[in-house]
Give the backbone structure.
Amino acid sequence: MTFTVSEVIRKYLGWCPNSVARPVRAAPPMIATPPVTTSPAQPDGGAGGSGRIDRGIRLTTGSIRFLFRNKRLLWFSLLLGLVMIFNFALSMYLQLISGSSLFPGTNLVTPPATVMIAQGSMPWIALTFIVTLVNALLTYYLLAALIASVSLILSGRDATLRDGLVHANGCMRSLISWAVIASIIGTVFLVIMNYSMTTSGTIENLVIICIIMAFMACFYILTLFVVPVLILANKNLITAVTESLSLFRKMWGEVIICFIIYILIVFVVMMITMIPIIAIGFSAGGSAAALGAVFALYMLVMCVLVFIGTTVMGITLTGLYNYGNTGILPPMFEGKQDGY
């Protein structure tokens, strides 16, 4: 069986060449709990691996299409980006006052002559925990607000940034508890990393670091489902963790496919963006100022891509949660909304 290009685009991106613009009626803002399926259905396994791949493609393309049609969600990209920048600045400052060079070999930032806070000391551990906690709490809060907004839009309602933030306030206690757990794990990891770097390298240290990194990766994946359960199902933290494990067992294939597709998209965008930037750099004669400006421009493009990508991931998480509970992808991810 063969497909034309237009058929493939229509299937996965929902493009309809014969469509015309339709007026959009803005529903009055309402503050209500996003719709939740009370009787979860077992997702249909589809045609084995091919079914998971197809759903993964529909989830990723549907998430991108959803963001294009609801550009107001880009406010979450801005807020999440500001949180990332804030956390990066705090982490760099903590590293600087600990006597570490921020950019080794560049001499861009010179650390102070005297170490203000020794790495591994109790003040350093306390500050590390606080910085990690602030970043985790803000990130989880904005992610919960984004997921609530997406769920409201999928149900046919009009959702603003304020609506999403109000819904996230309802599960703030559970979000704080989960952020504390994440901060403890992150602080322990940084302490062990600091200890391994100050001691002679051994196989034991490497094994411990690998184990902790694997544990943190599992915790991160679990978080991808814990936050949607907290905000959409309004469950307590323990129940949310239990349901998240169940959802991951059902959806692990789709999660991997979505992750691979997003990595490929980022790689392609990076390569496409790098071509004109490299051309500009070489055409400028290779001067240090020109190369620095080109590099700064490239980093800016990558930061914007990451900020937008966080919003797309939040939309995908909402689709994964809905499919895990109902066995059916929302119409937007199927490309069937508005007659497409």
Summary: Residues 52-324 form one domain.
